[in-house]
Amino acid sequence: MKPADVVQAQLEAYNGQDLERFCACFGAEAVLAEFGGAVTHAGLEAVRQRYASLFAEHPGNRARLVSRMAVGDVVIDDEEIVRGPETPLFRAIAIYTVKNGLITRVDFVR
Which strands, in side-by-side order, build the sheet including 62-71? Predict the structure, then answer.
């Protein structure tokens, strides 16, 4: 599977709030981080807990892909995200690193 395909699969699982399918896109040692900053979640279990909490807290949460760039193992998504019908839209850039068909790192720009 190409890196952009893995990222698309996790986006679809995210929008469907399908935690198992979402986590299946990540490697065991995956990390989430703020761009240019500290790692906020390390390891698949931490990623799972973060998104289980997010999905439970915001059942209407969805991301719309504005644009995508892919070079080698790096995929950069520009996304519009809404937590629910009564919350404001916000924008984020997610920079994914994909190795061996799994996401190993996501750096967020918010």
Answer: 39-42, 26-34, 102-109, 90-99, 74-82, 62-71
Q: Note the pTM of the prediction, 2 decimals.
A: 0.94
Q: Which two tokens stand for residue 95?
A: 């920079």
DSSP state of 2: -
Residue with tokens 């019908």: 85
> pLDDT per position in the chain (110 positions), as tens?
899 999 999 999 999 999 999 999 999 999 999 999 899 999 999 999 999 999 999 999 999 999 999 999 999 999 999 998 888 999 999 999 999 999 999 999 98
* Rounded Cα gap, residues 54 and 17, in angstroms: 9
Q: Compute the CA torsion angle 5, 10, 28, 90 (nearest 10 deg).
A: 120
